[in-house]
Amino acid sequence: MIHKNFKWLRVASIGFLVFIVFGAYFKIFSAEFVYDDYAFIVNNKAIHGLSPVSKFFTDPNIFTGAQDNLGGKNWRPISSLAFALQYKVFGANPAGFHFIGILFHLINALLVYFLAKKLLNRTDGALAIASLWALHPVLTEAVSWISNQSSLIFFGFFLTAILALFKERFWASYLFFAFSLLSKETALGGLVVIAAIFFINKINWKKFIPFVLIGLAYFWLRFEILESLGDHVLRGSFWQNLLLAPAVFWKYIALSVWPANLLLDYSNFPLPSGIFDIRVILGVLSLISCGLLIWLSIKKSWPYFGLGIVWFIAFLLPVMQIIPFQDIVGERFLYAPLAGFFLAAVWGFEKLPEHFVGAGTKILIVILFIFFGLTMRRNNDWMNSENLWQSVLRVDSRNEKAAQNLSAFYLQKGDGEKIVEFSKKLLEINPNSKAGRLHLAVGKIMKGEYKEAEAELLMLIKKYPDFQEARNNLLVLYQQTGQDGFILGTATAPAVEGNIVNSGIAGKVVIGSDKPFEASLAVYKSDNPNTPFISVRAHSDGTFQIPLRQGFYILKPLDPDGPAAPVKESYSFIIGNGQWLQVKIEYK
């Protein structure tokens, strides 16, 4: 009977974890690609095919798509291969990638549960640890952002390595630890965790040597392939960089305890003002407190309480800015540390007097409900680029990257009003932003504010004479104001609902002295000038009409049979929201 109850309890616990993970993340199935997803997946041709498989292990450009984009290099061969396998199955469909990401997170939640049960020998405590970890809102950056699947993959392999270690299956543990390292370099922090497990369980230290050798071999291979140790960035003075580590450590503790004002981009994280900066003081005190708690766990024989603290610190060590690198703070970096945080918290909680434990169970349920709601709400921000960057500006109104990405997002959508709004916001933050000035000019062209657009573009060209994009847009502006005889005027169509294209170009093809001419025309998108987007033929009276969504296009008159030829080889133009351009195309 006891065996049956135990089996039922295990099934119920697993079912509960499945329910809360899919419940909290279900809306992400309909989320779009955002931010780095385009560089890492959509535009990364290297992962669009599996052959040869060796490229994933030898080419440092593949993970970030550095060969096709302007991103930096990184070496995560297993994570790169995982992207390629998913692309093989799902193509450029984000739903498939999101499904795999949520599935990885669920598997990791189950692994955390099994490991916690092994350590605590209690189902309720293990379920509490796994549930708190799985639902913590700060983990949404790792789970809901496709580009960060490497965090999920490396942690899954690491947890498997630890479970194998406890079963004394050392060769399996060595193998999965190696897989973890090949998925993400953060796994190096796991060596400290493994050493702590050897110490607690009095395992023969000779068995630890292969873990060290694997770590050293990985470190050497990574350096050989990347030809550097990483994207190190010094900020401010030597002392500011030195004091950044405790300030960052305190920020991670604060996010773990109070996951509010979550933020994708911490580029405006203030550097410490000095040794008396409150964040530095709290960070140093926190590190000292962690050291004292580890000492207490040894004295009191609370081994896994101490292990949880060691786990939390060990996985944060590579990202605490001890060696400064690009991202000052990243919420995704808490994906592995939080498992240790909750192991220590639940273990410590169970050592409290009985009357505290009863009240604590009710508090735990309330926290889980809060985490569930906060995770669902945070996932709204990950649905698309607009929501994501708007969420950044809500927390950090001076975030330059957010303002620039929003102006670029609305530029793609052809929304002149929004382009102008966020370009102005960008220029308020950084008056010298080339992108801000350029986007502002294009937005004004779309709104028909041609004189203001011309002034912005001339200002850009005066300051940056070789800025070709500014010159191209000035040419478009002159065409649209009729200075080359192509565009005769504009008309604004009434707003329509649904997916109806209510903008484009219309006009007439003429030859000689305005005689109607029947000719073929090809329209290209500006980002793909070699493949026609649409081809049409003018009517016998020379008239034509081409519906086009908002955007930047190139029209090319085609050479007909016979002696006639177009006066110009191509015309560039911008279509605004609900805007119809009236044009004339001449042949001679």
From TrEMBL:
<feature type="transmembrane region" description="Helical">
    <location>
        <begin position="145"/>
        <end position="166"/>
    </location>
</feature>
<feature type="repeat" description="TPR">
    <location>
        <begin position="400"/>
        <end position="433"/>
    </location>
</feature>
<keyword id="KW-0677">Repeat</keyword>
<feature type="transmembrane region" description="Helical">
    <location>
        <begin position="7"/>
        <end position="26"/>
    </location>
</feature>
<feature type="transmembrane region" description="Helical">
    <location>
        <begin position="355"/>
        <end position="374"/>
    </location>
</feature>
<keyword id="KW-1133">Transmembrane helix</keyword>
<feature type="transmembrane region" description="Helical">
    <location>
        <begin position="332"/>
        <end position="349"/>
    </location>
</feature>
<keyword id="KW-0812">Transmembrane</keyword>
<keyword id="KW-0472">Membrane</keyword>
<feature type="transmembrane region" description="Helical">
    <location>
        <begin position="95"/>
        <end position="116"/>
    </location>
</feature>
<dbReference type="InterPro" id="IPR011990">
    <property type="entry name" value="TPR-like_helical_dom_sf"/>
</dbReference>
<protein>
    <submittedName>
        <fullName>TPR domain protein</fullName>
    </submittedName>
</protein>
<feature type="transmembrane region" description="Helical">
    <location>
        <begin position="172"/>
        <end position="200"/>
    </location>
</feature>
<feature type="transmembrane region" description="Helical">
    <location>
        <begin position="302"/>
        <end position="320"/>
    </location>
</feature>
<dbReference type="InterPro" id="IPR052346">
    <property type="entry name" value="O-mannosyl-transferase_TMTC"/>
</dbReference>
<dbReference type="InterPro" id="IPR019734">
    <property type="entry name" value="TPR_rpt"/>
</dbReference>
<feature type="transmembrane region" description="Helical">
    <location>
        <begin position="207"/>
        <end position="223"/>
    </location>
</feature>
<keyword id="KW-0802">TPR repeat</keyword>
<feature type="transmembrane region" description="Helical">
    <location>
        <begin position="276"/>
        <end position="296"/>
    </location>
</feature>
<feature type="transmembrane region" description="Helical">
    <location>
        <begin position="243"/>
        <end position="264"/>
    </location>
</feature>
